[in-house]
């Protein structure tokens, strides 16, 4: 692939998901996870040159994550390799989805710091994607906020709030950080769960603050606000097997369509028909992913054929 046009900034996590042991009984299977990793791999599967900015451990878990990214075609030239442990997340099925218990203290991802950021990005970089657990606590959260602030004048900033309430220890500091990042963003994506945590009036505040707001609503599809314009797109019907990574894959599908059509630039100003097609493509990608286990993103061809 060519030099990346989209960099996914944040965490790479080894997800431990329930699986039957060879001898019988319950156990766990290790799979690649984390918002930035999922989005980068999904973009690459959509045929978009993608890169990862963040930390990858040199231990067996981190080496596996690096291999998964490389095999997908994701560029790791701006990733930091660290001898600190790989972050782990233990998955538990719950009503309506999956709960993850994160084991992150002292890990490569948690201790990624502003000094670890790349000095500069290639001129080909058109967009940066932020979101997920990497924005919760310093020093990693400070690093990614600093990167967004540094690049916001030159690159498209896509912010997927992807809030994980169970992992937040300092809610006031986290809210303040999200507020600052929202002010830098060209596109903000929120889910129903994000809005619940943000509290009453959050949707109206975000609509007034960002150039483009995407509200994903699971099986109900997505709503897009751009200035005074608003439209709703339905989600394709899907037999849901696993919702893990669906929001990341939606983001990747939408970005991939915009990139292929030449609209991935700042300011983001595609005509409405192109924007509708982009979001529809993202919804189809997400619907295909939830029909199979894990954050298994479809290819561009699979997504287009799902019309």
TrEMBL record:
InterPro entries: PfkB_Carbo_kinase, PfkB_dom, Ribokinase-like. The keyword ATP-binding applies. This is Carbohydrate kinase. It holds the Pfam family PfkB. Its EC number is 2.7.1.-. Residues 8-300 form the Carbohydrate kinase PfkB domain. GO terms for molecular function: kinase activity. Keywords: ATP-binding, Kinase, Nucleotide-binding, Transferase. SUPFAM superfamilies: Ribokinase-like. Belongs to the carbohydrate kinase PfkB family.
